[in-house]
Amino acid sequence: MKVVIIGGVAAGPKAASKIMRMRPDAEVTIVEKGIFLSYAGCGLPYYISGDVRERNHLMETPAGVVRDAVFFQKVKNLKVLNGTEAVEIDRAGKRVRVKTLASGAESWLPYDNLVLATGAEPVIPPIPGVDRKNVFTLHGVHDAEGIKAVIAERRAEDVVIIGGGLIGVETTEALAAHACRVTVVEMLPQILGILDWEIARLVELHMESKGVKVMTGTKALAIESRDGAGGAVTHVRTDKGELPADMVILAIGVRPNVALARAAGLAIGETTRAIKVDDRMRTSDPAIYAAGDCVECIDRVTGRSCFVPLGSTANKQGRTAAVNICGGDEAFPGVLGSAVCKVFDFCVARTGLTERAARALGMEVVTAMAPGPDKAHYMPQSKPLLMKLVADAKTGRLLGVQATGPGDGAKRIDVAAAAITAGMTVDDVANLDLSYAPPYAPAMDNLITAANVARNKRAGLMIGVSAQDVKAKLDRGDDFVFLDVRSPKEYAQVRLPKSVLIPLGALRGRLAELPRDKEIIAFCQVSLRGYEAALILRAAGFKDVKVMDGGVAMWPYEKERA
Amino acid sequence: MKVVIIGGVAAGPKAASKIMRMRPDAEVTIVEKGIFLSYAGCGLPYYISGDVRERNHLMETPAGVVRDAVFFQKVKNLKVLNGTEAVEIDRAGKRVRVKTLASGAESWLPYDNLVLATGAEPVIPPIPGVDRKNVFTLHGVHDAEGIKAVIAERRAEDVVIIGGGLIGVETTEALAAHACRVTVVEMLPQILGILDWEIARLVELHMESKGVKVMTGTKALAIESRDGAGGAVTHVRTDKGELPADMVILAIGVRPNVALARAAGLAIGETTRAIKVDDRMRTSDPAIYAAGDCVECIDRVTGRSCFVPLGSTANKQGRTAAVNICGGDEAFPGVLGSAVCKVFDFCVARTGLTERAARALGMEVVTAMAPGPDKAHYMPQSKPLLMKLVADAKTGRLLGVQATGPGDGAKRIDVAAAAITAGMTVDDVANLDLSYAPPYAPAMDNLITAANVARNKRAGLMIGVSAQDVKAKLDRGDDFVFLDVRSPKEYAQVRLPKSVLIPLGALRGRLAELPRDKEIIAFCQVSLRGYEAALILRAAGFKDVKVMDGGVAMWPYEKERA
Predict the structure, then answer these.
(1) What is the pLDDT of residue A533?
(2) Which of A136, A322, A448, B507 could form a disulfide with A18 if both were Cys (CB 3.0 to 4.6 A apart)?
(3) 3-state secondary structure at position B222
(4) Average pLDDT of B368-382?
(5) Is-contact A39 A143, C-beta < 8 A?
(6) Which one, of B277, B276, B278, B314, lies nearest residue B293 by Cα?
(7) Comparing C-alpha atoms, which of A1, A2, A5 is closest to residue A260?
């Protein structure tokens, strides 16, 4: 059995290794255009920051062996042609034409099965100046080396990152570690489009607290130089003015590498522009498989096609392709868009559908905001975790969860990913037997609390109102009572605009102070006391009482501080 | 609606608060024998260690308000009778006789619904000397105060902990923080009976590396004093000799408080001796509910009764009881025995069935050992995580997972808990879309790797042999090749007894060195290279080749070190 694999990072080597394990008699050849194999692309920001001290660490096995062509040959019995480009697929002849980049020599490699693991490439924005000196993408090892070289020469005091997605945000922290002044320019109204606006806004506020300038709704128009046509970048022109820039990182996203597949007439996804595969990772040609960043996936919640290039998915897909090539029968069931990234002291994580995405699909949703300590609140290592849960309003089915803050969001997102995959409702989630001890979780885990908030809303016990809606009311000057039920001490430290204070413990005795004909919106730090307050008011006959979701902890605007 | 709740910690206050939220017109009275309400019993070891600096922190809300009777009255409109014992339930008359402990005054409290949240109490071993001075259990705040007082007077250099369960182990670390020399005496062949032997053994080795003496298979016979009959403890006599002891902690477990329920004729579980409830948390009397550490649960994997007292479960059960009392209809579906605890630098976590438990139930199981870094291996914050997965051999259904080591096991155990709850197979688990970024997880999450190992075993690609079986072979002097395929550098640092080294990369060229007529057991650090080695050997015609589960990383015996 002859197998040719095009692509030597992530999905390709994974498929190759798995094939050799299942069929040691197979002849497997990996064709890789670049020099480096199996490097950890996701680790590049940490190589820039210095957390990862040596480049080789990104290419080593956990045992410290560099995964080069010799390694693949000796350990895996795999033939690797790096520095070699696949230029044409002859489907009828079942062969691939390859070109050695150094010599220009060409040859044909015959295959019984072909695996396309051609990956993705950074999208370059269509603006002038993208090829100026000190303008980089962050895609390969060479990009990271270029960025590090500029930093090492202390020529990057001001850096502009164009694009506020995962890569842009991760790179921000890496550059801030070198004391660069970083500005993130994002065309959309928020960074991290994989989050709902108010969660992304909490991340923006955190980045700003670390000295990063975040400019959303801002369009980069040109990358310019005061040193003339061939000069290195000195500033970026945007629709909101000029930004000084000794270095620019283009991080507006990636697109799948499908030129080879397209030229060979393989089916390409209409919306994703990625290679179409079935759940066996087979393309429209049964002898050709594809895996990794070049393929489109199925969203397990919606059943729709999506493009979510991630190393974790690439590995699973590479394995699936290998098993099926070797005569097995395994399906890759799709993804949830689970993602996590570190942004200074915050963990940002998400899975499934955002509220925005669910509503765009016409779903009726219930949301729950659950800020709270990520461990027993009396433990010194406990940190705030800010969660948002989205569920189907009719069935209670969990659709998505987002988390941010210094607390351990990745854990809860992974549990949520399993729960969404299983089709669990918020009732199911609320009764999950999650492990509990004070150094690891509160007695009621944050995810369980979030599910309980959603249950209370579904049961009609709690009527929520979003911070955005409250802000709009405040801005309009609506006549309502914005009732803070925290303690006087908490109120003295930080408060929300136009709020009035009646501590929860005093509320029953001070009902006469509140108007019965006005809307009352109660809140506290996390809105548990706010919820209790609303119940007290409703029991006392107040008709129009709501609770502001997320309380002070998740208020995504400026707060008044003492 | 009148509700009486017996028990003022965890399940009781939870049920009471929830009832008041759903039915603000209800009259709810909590009867609590002790003085303290809603204190975090699980936090007591951390109060002893000093991590939690003030006792009140264990009784405060996250906002810093102490949950005393005034708090419950003012904030929750709940009546609390603390220092009051419930002494009799008159089911026919629907009333509870209570006694004020200070005055001895008695009265009857009528109820429409009664909730028993009477908790559990420490089991006192039937040996002489348990009531000597400086002998403690660790159950209530007063125990912790007593222990702290002895430490404060520097009278506890040598401490013996009788019982190596969760509480014993957590207390070990708390005492070691005060430089006590701690010996744990456990009657069974291992500590932490909720784990399989070899996982518990890894924890024991870690404790021993921290200076703790762990004596398994050891029976405490008497707690004695050289200072005569009324003297404080000076030593513990065991069947393996005398142990010096300035202080003794009795931590052999808890039993449910069911005297009141039993006297009232309510059904009690035969094996658990805990109060029987249906999934609505209703006892055999439809007007009486029970929740928390006094009730028996259903194991969601086996469907059998079990007794797993935990604060997390108590909160869920209290909520469920409250909803049903208020006319709702909610089920508590049971538990998985999920647990986590901190043992010095190790996180110890588990959920579902151990291999031992599954086999005892007559199940045919496949196990997978998956040691590996808990984050991308090139990240400086990555730490080793040692996992064991247990699945049904026929169906592949996930039955249980155990984790230990410095890495983040709690996260994977919680994901596993969700997966087991959903009835997922190892195929399902292997394709979970878990969040990935280098600071949080490896590209192939540890749980996914464990599932893949189990898949490889089920597919016949990998034949595993446990470290225990290998050790027995070595001890018997069986004639086999114990083949280490790590690097010479790794081998030089630490090696297993009687192992021979052929690095994986050299194996294909050195096949002639290996006998074809003998059993070969291959391994490496984590047994991924061991697996590759076995496949190479099988492909080369070697007939009897196995892989040692867990490799050097999970070898639960002494290792030879350079």
Answers:
(1) 96
(2) A322
(3) strand
(4) 97
(5) no
(6) B314
(7) A5
Closest CA to B275 of B93, B115, B84: B115
Residues 6+ apart with CB under 8 A from B358: B365, B390, B392, B399, B400
Contacts of A337 in chain B (CB under 8 A): 433
Residue with tokens 């003295």: A492
Structure tokens at B482: 């114990």
Which structure tokens are listed for A357? 């995405």
Q: pLDDT band for B229, please (50, 70, 90 cuts).
A: confident
Q: What is the DSSP letter of B378?
A: T
Q: What is the pLDDT of residues A146-173, one digit of tens each?
A: 999 999 988 889 999 999 999 999 999 9
pLDDT tier, A229 (very low <50, low <70, confident <90, very high otherwise): confident
Cβ contacts of A459 on chain B, cutoff 8 Å: 328
Q: Do A338 and B436 touch (CB under 8 A)?
A: yes
Q: How many CB atoms lie within 10 A of CB A265?
A: 11
Q: Give the pLDDT score at A86.
A: 98
What is the dihedral angle through the alpha carbons of A141, A144, A150, A156, rounded to the nearest 10 degrees?
Answer: 170
Summarize the confidence of residues B10-25 as an average pLDDT. Answer: 95
Contact B293, B120 (CB under 8 A): yes
Sequence letter at residue A350: R
3-state DSSP assignment of residue B528 = helix
Tokens representing residue B245 in the block: 């002891």
Average pLDDT on B170-192 reads: 96
Task: Report d(CA A33, CA A118) in Å as an integer.
Answer: 9
Q: Helices B11-22 and B69-76 meet at what angle, rounded to 10?
A: 20
Please tell me the distance from the alpha carbon of residue A97 to that of residue A226, in angstroms, as a whole number: 46
Q: How far apart are CA B546 and CA B85, in angstroms?
A: 62
DSSP lists the bridge partners of residue A256 as: A120
Residue with tokens 């390969």: A140
Mutate to test the interface with B, among A414, A487, A547, A552 (most CBs of B within 10 A): A414
Cα–Cα distance between A340 and A402 in angstroms, integer? 10
Rounded CA gap, A261 and A270, in Å?
A: 14
Which chain B residues touch A404 with a CB distance below 8 Å?
none
- Dihedral sign, Cα of residue A15, residue B534, residue A68, residue A39: positive
Structural domains of chain B in order of their starting residue, each with its CATH number: 2-119+255-325 (3.50.50.60), 135-252 (3.50.50.60), 345-458 (3.50.50.60), 464-561 (3.40.250.10)
Amino acid at B81: L
Strand, helix or coil for residue B436 = coil
**Averaged pLDDT, A53-81:** 91
Closest to A463 in 3D by CA, of A526, A546, A396: A546
Taking the C-alpha atoms of residue A431 and residue A341, their distance in angstroms, rounded to an integer, is 28
Give the separation between CA A433 and CA B419, rounded to whole angstroms: 11
Contact A96, A88 (CB under 8 A): yes
Q: Which of A211, A232, A214 is nearest to A223 (CA)?
A: A232
Helices H / strands E in chain A, number of each: 16, 32
Residue labelled with tokens 């209370």: A456
Q: Is A347 an annotated catalytic residue?
A: no
Q: Measured between CB atoms, which of A342, A378, A428 is closest to B439?
A: A342
Average pLDDT over residues B317-326: 98
CA distance A422 to B418: 8
Written as six digits, the tokens of B282 are: 């209703």
Instruction: Inspect the interface and report whether the beta carbons of A330 and B427 lie closer than 8 Å.
Output: yes
Please give the residue of chain A at the shortest CA–CA distance from B372: A62
What values do phi and psi take at A425, rounded to 5? -90, 170
Chain B from 357 to 386: CB within 8 A of any A CB: 372-373, 376-380
B333 Cα distance to chain centroid: 20
> How much is the pLDDT for A278?
98
Q: 3-class DSSP state for residue A82? A: strand
